[in-house]
Amino acid sequence: MSAVRNPWLAAFGVVALVHLTLNAAGAQPWDSISKCLLAPLLAAWAVQQHAPRLLVAALALCFLGDLFLELDDLFIVGMAAFAGAHIAFITLFVQRGALTRLRARPAIVIVYVVIAIGMVAWCWGGLEPDLKPAIPVYAALLVGTACVSLAAGTRAGLGGALFLVSDGIIALSEAGRIDPDATATGLAIMALYIAAVFLLATGIVSHEHPADPSGLPRKASRRT
Hints:
This protein is mainly alpha-helical. The protein has one domain. About 75% of the residues lie in helices and about 0% in strands. It has helices at about 5-25, 30-50, 55-70, 75-95, 100-105, 105-125, 135-150, 155-175, 185-210. Helix 6 (about 105-125) packs parallel to helix 8 (about 155-175) and helix 8 runs antiparallel to helix 9 (about 185-210). The two termini are about 20 Å apart.
């Protein structure tokens, strides 16, 4: 189904636009509330489309990450939830043969690893001590998702790349390399994140359920 015809994707699009508007206006707590609706709407659509359970789990963990990041002193807990989401994404793509495809395209892995190392090095001096052990691990998971998502095609691969960029901006803002209070910073983070989860989810479903001649996704028999 197209985004226009599917109520869950249509609702996701509306909430995304509302959230970006509220984010730009600094309208709390509505900004936080709208943010926390994004992943559940995609998860509901994924369930409707008989998507792999790992995709639904990843989106549920994204919701928890969004929620915890909005609460005081729970940044690490939010990171842990998103780390779980990336583990779910990576597991799903690896099950679909991502590693075999990556062996034929090692340059992709090298490029992403170099980018991640550069970003961590840029952040390092400005990070709080309690974040320093977590950032390299989380960066590795981001790189993992970015690399293996290409196994599901260009759309999912672009989603993985945008996730890396979005969370990279968060790391740079936490390290004081970018102004965390600037409106442009918040908008960039959320616009990239929204695009990332949308492209990952729709890319996975399109890969699992190739469209038939009518343009509607077929239901796959396998769910993991």
